[in-house]
Write a structure and sequence with these properties.
The complex is a heterodimer of chains A (about 260) and B (about 250). Chain A is an all-alpha fold and about 260 residues long. In chain A, about 85% of the residues lie in helices and about 0% in strands. Classes of the chains: A mainly alpha (about 260), B alpha/beta (about 250).
């Protein structure tokens, strides 16, 4: 029982940490320079990873689904299936998991290292709100970057699908795009893309929490990096279950 | 207590972390312009003492006065005013890894003196780096600097706002004898030219002998010796005599 309470306490602490940091982000002075730097680090520098993963996933998914669609005489639906599955679920979830791995570990390790080498104390000595400068900027950067990375992932997946289909059937780009977007509503694009803001908040909060609070030297750096990736990935997947249900409730048209 | 103006005053300060009592009823004062070296074995609360002086930690009991103001009950805004007058050189220099040396120095000026122009800040940073012999390294990242250079850059950052009180944590740790001597010389220069009050935590008795006006010896969280080297030479405490006659 006490162990269960401990877990609840931990989740509560982490949630309060994240919400406070998010609130502080809007209190002047706004740390816009650091925020821009973080958006560049978290968003722009993740683009090659997202692009490569999206294209590869798009190709593989088309290879897997094509034979099944052909056996039902429904190969013309391949672009539609690709678009609906990427925009609804694969794009948001895979982008979030990739960012959790790349950025979550990075933030956890960086902040834990700053704690171990007294850099966070040095920030406090200068009377700078260390939580605002180091945590709020990272959480907000994750929230802003994730939807854009998701859109990039969606289109990279479609590109991969087109490459695969083009080599198999010589379909033109125009026809592929027409078929891909024929049955795609705005509801099945906007809501799943915006849900990644929640994923961004989770990834930013979990990794900053571990990095900021673990003070165990170099062992702490390793623990912060590992724990950040494991817990943020798990929470992203669990929260996706709830978010999908909520999206279907408010946007029934987005249901497959 | 002395009638001279104390810059730092510890009154019956105790501090513990969990079950571990780090400081136990410690009282002392540092007068204006004085250099106090705090000696003691590892884990006796020396660095904690420095962090209490700048408000990074709060004592469990007792109070810490900086320039006759009790900082223990202060909020962040009030602490900010006090911290503006204090420089802190951390044990590992604690330079921000992702900032260049120049950016590390300009950050406190930006924060505390936002009215200054970029040109003025750049000039101040260059002047400060020249004083510690790092004028050629303004654009380097901390990862490109040696241990001694990092310490000098950390000292430059601690001095860039011309503080009235300088707190120094282990200036010679991790440095060879010659480089440690260079850091000691820089601190002596600060003492003689700026008349800055300094509190230095050190294991290096050679450096302490050169710089200290007074010495405090901590053992298991208790202040077991306080005074000049000559006074402590006559101490009844074996550890105090052993520490100040080391080497």
């Amino acid at each position: 029982m006490s162990k269960l309470l401990g877990h609840f306490e931990f989740v509560g602490d982490m949630s309060i940490f994240g919400i406070r940091a998010l609130w502080r982000a809007f209190i002047p002075p706004l740390e816009l320079a650091y925020l821009t730097e973080q958006i560049e680090e978290i968003g722009a520098r993740s683009l090659p990873l997202i692009a490569a993963a999206g294209i590869a996933l798009g190709i593989v998914m088309t290879l897997h689904t094509r034979s099944t669609l052909v056996s039902f005489g429904a190969e013309a639906w391949a672009p539609t299936l690709q678009a609906v599955s990427f925009f609804n679920e694969i794009g948001p979830l895979v982008a979030a998991l990739l960012i959790s791995g790349r950025v979550g570990a990075g933030i956890g390790a960086e902040l834990a290292n700053m704690r171990a080498t007294e850099q966070i104390d040095a920030v406090e000595v200068m009377s700078i709100d260390s939580s605002k400068m180091l945590v709020s900027t990272r959480i907000v950067a994750c929230i802003i970057s994730l939807p854009f990375l998701t859109i990039f992932m969606d289109f990279a997946g479609l590109l991969g699908g087109f490459i695969s289909e083009h080599f198999a059937t010589h379909i033109s780009l125009q026809l592929y795009v027409n078929r891909a977007f024929a049955d795609l509503s705005w509801a099945s694009f906007i809501a799943p893309t915006l849900k990644t803001c929640v994923f961004g908040f989770i990834i930013g909060t979990v990794s900053c929490y571990y990095g900021f609070t673990i003070d165990e030297g170099s062992a702490g750096v390793r623990r912060a990096a590992t724990s950040s990736v494991v817990l943020s990935s798990l929470l992203v997947i669990l929260s996706d279950v709830c978010l999908v249900k909520i999206i279907y409730f408010f946007f029934p048209l987005s249901a497959l | 207590m002395s009638t001279e103006k104390a810059v730092v005053e510890f009154n019956n300060v105790s501090k513990s972390f969990g079950q571990s009592q780090v400081l136990n009823d410690v009282s002392f004062e540092v007068l204006k312009g004085e250099t106090l070296c705090i000696l003691g074995r590892s884990g006796t609360g020396k660095s904690v003492t420095l962090k209490l002086m700048i408000g990074l930690l709060k004592p469990d009991t007792g109070n810490v006065l900086i320039g006759s103001e009790d900082i223990c009950g202060m909020n962040e805004r009030e602490l900010s005013r006090i911290r503006r007058q204090i420089g802190f050189l951390f044990q590992g220099a604690a330079l921000f890894d992702s900032f260049t040396v120049g950016q590390n120095l300009s950050l406190p000026i930006h924060r505390f003196e936002p009215e200054k122009s970029a040109a003025d800040i750049k000039k101040e940073v260059e002047d400060m780096l020249r004083q510690v012999g790092l004028e050629q390294d303004i654009g380097k990242l901390p990862g490109e600097l040696s241990g001694g250079m990092k310490k000098r850059a950390g000292l430059a950052r601690a001095l860039v706002l011309n503080p009235k009180l300088l707190l120094v944590d282990e200036p010679s740790s991790g440095l060879d004898r010659i480089t440690a001597s260079e850091i000691d010389e820089l601190l002596l220069k600060v003492k003689s030219e700026r008349h800055t009050t300094m509190v230095i935590v050190t294991h290096d008795i050679h450096g302490a002998r050169k710089m200290a006006d007074k010495v405090a010896v901590l053992d298991q969280g208790c202040l077991v010796g306080f005074g000049t080297f000559d006074e402590l030479q006559l101490s009844q405490n074996d550890l105090v005599r052993a520490l100040i006659t080391e080497y």
